[in-house]
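job 3f2a | input accepted
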Amino acid sequence: MKRLVNLLLLGLEAMGWLAFFVGFGELSRRFIRRYQRLEVVGDSMEPTLSNGDKIIVRKGVAPISGSLIVFADPRERARLLVKRAQSVSAGEVVAMGDNADASTDSRHFGLIPVSELTGVAFYRYFPVRSAGRI
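job 3f2a | predicted structure (134 res):
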């Protein structure tokens, strides 16, 4: 009888660990689907973001004026751009670089449909000395 109880307790413990790891895996998958890491290339967002900065983007978030948006370059769809949302209305965004002289933005390719945004950049994690909300 004691052996049977020990086996049952061992089985319950194993099921608890299994449930823990399945739950952890599901949380990880949700995080991965909801967030994306990117590295900034270029100077179009100086002084806010610099070449080589690494940021986190939250996907599926509606932008507000002033937020940093990420979207596919209308001229080269495989390339992502980070720009500031200057105005958001009627399902479209005016996307402008903070460094106008070095930026290709809505002045060149027009408005960006909100439905085409990858997400909103909200945190810089590298370089460490500059880490924090953006």
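job 3f2a | The first helix runs from residue 2 to 34.
job 3f2a | closed
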